[in-house]
Amino acid sequence: MPNNESELRKLIHKADQRSYCGRLERLKFLFGIEKQSGFPAPPLAVEYYEEARLCWYVGAFVATILMTQLAFEELMRSHYRVVKGVGGKLIFNKKIKKVDDTTFFDLIEAAKNDKWISKAEANELHNLRKNIRNPYVHVKNFKISKNGKPNLKKPNFFIQYLKIKAPELIRYDVEDEAKDAIKILVILFPLMSLRYGGSLILIATKGI
After folding, report:
1. 42 near 201, Cβ under 8 Å?
2. Which three-class secondary structure state does DSSP give residue 139?
């Protein structure tokens, strides 16, 4: 363990050298797909948005995925807090839920039903929720097939670990998933903010 500031500085410098190329490529990708540098959005949602971008830049890929989902969820929940008022409620197939009790799934469906997002955009968000984010947040054990053998195609703790530590052994990679998540974020989040900016707190986002 380093025991003085000089040694700590050397460790940081070496780490920066090792990670420089990866950060450069991720930053180039990020700025290459961003089309909107400023848009109206609620402050907390913007903070989540910026942290997701920062996580992608530094290479914290699981954190990128989680922060992306949080940014979208807070954007939609904040919108409905304003539109529906304090204690407001949303209706789903005759079921009523308070805005604060809705899930990410509920918010996506509400946004689609209200024409805030298109069906294709809703599908993108559901893919983020179900196939990218959920396997990390709701980690499962092996599923046993009818033949009594583990079904390795279903998300489980071992597959999630391999995505992070040994992606060459499987066809999934946490970096690729994070890349998909951040692409959805920097393209769709500003569009959603601009569509309903009148009902949101105006705030200009800043770059990294």
Report:
1. yes
2. coil
> Strand, helix or coil at 142?
coil
Q: What is the pLDDT of residues 107-165, one digit of tens each?
A: 999 999 999 999 999 999 999 999 999 999 988 887 767 776 666 667 788 888 888 88
The backbone torsions φ and ψ at residue 92, rounded to the nearest 5 degrees and listed phi first, read -130, 110
CA angle (158 as vertex; 103, 179 as ends), nearest 5:
60
- Tokens representing 73 are 């969820």
Q: How far apart are CA 23 and CA 59, in angstroms?
A: 7
Asked if residue 203 has pLDDT above 80, the reply is no
How far is it, in rounded angstroms, from Cα 93 to Cα 86? 22
What domains can be seen in the chain, in order of their start residue? Answer: 34-199 (1.20.120)
